């Protein structure tokens, strides 16, 4: 299990992460979402031992990860722009990684066939998407305990995404690997990940099991016979609220039954509770944060 | 130990072409004088002497270039993403890269020694050649350790190249500056002029610069060989007479090698993964070298206007490299003024 305990990180003078507390269980597909510059890549680099945290602890099975050979052997990081040696091929990079990770040759060749990649072709001749495929393939063949993928699926075509998800699901099913993915494609993250963390302004604003978290957020639309007042909803944990005369649209956090029973006491003409997608939740959360920053609430 | 062996094995395989090319070029340069000049008992030391100077020059060049090659992965964010997560301790990675680099620095010396063994006429002098080689290797490795330390303090390849070049240039400039200052002092004191060397023993000072030590060392050794071949005698006594680089200086270089190797390792371990994305801010790089180079140039000659203009332009260019933009700050003018006033 991986734990982030009160982690702080500065890059130069800028504080990128502050008081991050996250637990990543084993055998999970963990999604990391956030705006551009939120700190997702920094999070993954801290986890892989590239960066050292300026405060707090990052532990793998209760051991600090930074400069720890035993922990780093269990983690493989594939960045958004993977580095390849001058004029190297996929086969050369496989040889490099095989010095430190146990690459399953059978799986490696199986994936090569599945993803139609030429292992002897120089990587600088690959397209951006193919290069990404090549390194994800290496990561999957290496089967580390934790595979970290920074914006792995961004730039892959739908067929390749399907193949990768299928392969990753197989590896998770046999409990040999946990995957941590950062992505801007929230539909993919919702579809694929079973737990997630959302990073906003360097902090983890929301985290937990995907289904449970989304089930705890509700999109509510109501209409009243009079002008709506914002203070009617003070008792609720409101993420965002949009009032237009007698109609209100809310995103609210909390137990559905309790929310419903409270809203009924307001005697609305129309009351609708709709399911929330991850993308909606993300957008509303960002809007709320911007409003907070703007008005200093 | 398995990972260390794996790293060395991978390094050898990945760099095979460049290693073979290096070996071939070094061997060609070192052995060429033996092939170009026929063996002559009267001047038999000449081809080997030329080879020895070539070895010293190669030592210098490799000591400057190899740290840049070995640690170039530190200056690119993407290569840092590859190397830093590897399951090896930072000290291990440092010593592996450093050790491989040190071995490469020694290559010209090994080639030269094999060449010496090939020359039948040199058989009698093998122990003396060994002594000469020991010194050359020590000077080369101490310069290598020095350059490695400064390279560790840099955050970009350009800055590291500047630091390596500055290590070389500043040593030469400091010697010239001291020479210039002492010459001016002698001129003031003696009225009818004179060389600083007539009044001061500068050879120890020059010998303390790794860049110059190798050439001094060879010169002394070859003079001692020549005297022995002409008139016999004890090599060590003759050699000590010729050379100011005696045992104490060798200890100095050994301490330099050990000290800077260890300091470079500590600097490497303290380096952060994000350093490759930041500007070089260490006081050991631009502030130190800009001060040394500018100060030495001004100390050498402060009266010639054209020379002064050149020095000021160089000063501002070095600051432009440090800041990554052409900028003239009040602080720079003040520093130059202080140099000028103190020297005048």
How many helices of chain B in DSSP terms?
A: 15
Element order of chain B: H for helix, E for strand: HHHHHHHHHHHHHHH
Query: Can you identify the CATH superfamily of the largest domain in chain A?
Result: P-loop containing nucleotide triphosphate hydrolases
Q: Strands of the biggest beta sheet of chain A: in what spatial order?
A: 6-7-8-3-9-10
Provide the residue-averaged pLDDT of chain A.
89
Order of helices and strands of chain A: EEEHEEHEHHHEHEHEEHEEEHEH
**C-alpha end-to-end distance of chain A:** 36 Å
Structural category of chain A:
alpha/beta
- Helical fraction of chain A equals 25-40%
Written overview of the protein:
The complex is a heterodimer of chains A (297) and B (344). Chain A is an alpha/beta fold. Chain A is built from ten helices and 14 strands. Chain A has helices at residues 40-48, 69-72, 90-97, 105-115, 128-142, 158-173, 186-192, 210-215, 256-264, 278-295; strands at residues 2-11, 14-24, 29-34, 55-60, 63-64, 75-78, 146-150, 178-182, 195-200, 203-209, 217-223, 237-244, 247-253, 270-274. In chain A, helix 3 (90-97) packs parallel to helix 5 (128-142). The mean pLDDT of chain A is 89. Chain B has 344 residues and is mainly α. In chain B, 78% of the residues lie in helices and 0% in strands. Chain B has helices spanning 2-14, 16-36, 45-70, 77-83, 90-118, 126-152, 157-190, 196-199, 203-207, 210-231, 235-242, 247-270, 286-300, 305-323, 330-343. The model of chain B has no long low-confidence stretch (mean pLDDT 83). At the A-B interface, helix 2, strand 6 and helix 3 of A face helix 1 and helix 4 of B.
């Amino acid at each position: 299990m991986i734990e982030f305990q009160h982690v702080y990180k500065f890059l130069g003078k800028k504080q990128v992460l502050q008081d991050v507390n996250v637990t990543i269980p084993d055998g999970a597909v963990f999604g990391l979402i956030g705006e551009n510059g939120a700190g997702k890549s920094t999070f993954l680099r801290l986890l892989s031992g590239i960066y050292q945290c300026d405060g707090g602890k990052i532990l793998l099975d209760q051991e600090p990860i930074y400069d720890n050979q035993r922990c780093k052997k269990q983690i493989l990081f594939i960045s958004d722009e993977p580095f390849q040696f001058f004029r190297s091929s996929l086969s050369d990079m496989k040889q490099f990684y095989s010095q430190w990770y146990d690459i399953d040759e059978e799986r490696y060749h199986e994936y090569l066939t599945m993803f139609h990649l030429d292992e002897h072709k120089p990587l600088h001749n690959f397209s951006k998407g193919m290069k990404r495929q090549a390194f994800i393939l290496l990561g999957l063949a290496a089967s580390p305990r934790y595979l970290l993928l920074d914006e792995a699926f961004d730039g892959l075509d739908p067929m390749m995404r399907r193949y990768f998800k299928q392969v990753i699901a197989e590896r998770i099913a046999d409990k040999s690997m946990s995957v941590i993915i950062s992505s801007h494609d929230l539909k993919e993250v919702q579809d694929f990940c079973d737990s997630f963390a959302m990073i906003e302004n360097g902090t983890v604003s929301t985290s937990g099991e995907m289904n449970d978290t989304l089930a705890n957020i509700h999109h509510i639309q109501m209409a009243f016979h009079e002008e709506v007042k914002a203070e009617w909803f003070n008792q609720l944990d409101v993420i965002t609220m949009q009032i237009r005369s007698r109609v209100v649209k809310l995103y609210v956090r909390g137990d559905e039954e309790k929310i419903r029973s409270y809203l009924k006491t307001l005697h609305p003409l129309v009351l609708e509770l709709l399911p929330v997608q991850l993308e909606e939740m993300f957008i509303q959360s960002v809007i709320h944060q911007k409003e907070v920053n703007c008005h200093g609430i | 130990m398995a990972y260390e062996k794996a790293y060395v094995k991978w390094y050898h395989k990945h760099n095979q072409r460049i290693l073979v090319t290096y070996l071939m070029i070094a061997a060609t340069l070192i052995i060429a004088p033996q092939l170009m000049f026929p063996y002559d008992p009267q001047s038999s030391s000449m081809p080997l002497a030329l080879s020895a100077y070539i070895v010293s020059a190669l030592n210098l060049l490799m000591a400057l270039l190899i740290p840049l090659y070995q640690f170039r992965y530190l200056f690119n964010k993407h290569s840092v993403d590859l190397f830093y997560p590897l399951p090896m301790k930072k000290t291990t990675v440092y010593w592996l890269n450093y050790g491989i680099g040190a071995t490469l620095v020694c290559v010209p010396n090994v080639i030269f020694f094999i060449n010496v063994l090939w020359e039948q006429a040199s058989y009698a002098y093998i122990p003396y050649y060994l002594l000469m080689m020991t010194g050359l290797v020590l000077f080369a490795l101490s310069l290598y350790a020095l350059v490695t330390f400064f390279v560790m303090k840099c955050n970009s390849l350009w800055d590291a190249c500047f630091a390596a070049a500055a290590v070389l240039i500043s040593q030469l400039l400091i010697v010239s500056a001291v020479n210039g200052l002492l010459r001016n002092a002698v001129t003031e004191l003696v009225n009818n002029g004179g060389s600083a060397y007539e009044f001061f023993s500068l050879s120890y000072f020059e010998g303390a610069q790794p860049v110059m030590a190798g050439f001094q060392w060879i010169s002394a050794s070859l003079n001692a060989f020549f005297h022995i071949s002409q008139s016999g005698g004890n090599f060590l006594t003759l050699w000590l007479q010729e050379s100011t680089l005696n045992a104490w200086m060798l200890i100095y270089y050994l301490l330099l090698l050990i000290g800077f190797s260890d300091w470079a390792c500590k600097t490497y371990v303290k380096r952060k993964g994000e350093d490759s994305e930041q500007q070089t801010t260490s006081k050991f790089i631009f502030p130190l070298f800009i001060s040394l180079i500018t100060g030495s140039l001004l100390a050498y000659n402060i009266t010639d206007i054209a020379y002064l203009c050149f020095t000021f332009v160089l000063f501002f260019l070095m600051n432009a490299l440090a800041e990554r933009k052409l900028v003239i700050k009040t602080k720079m003018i003040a520093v130059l003024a202080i140099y000028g006033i103190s020297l005048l």
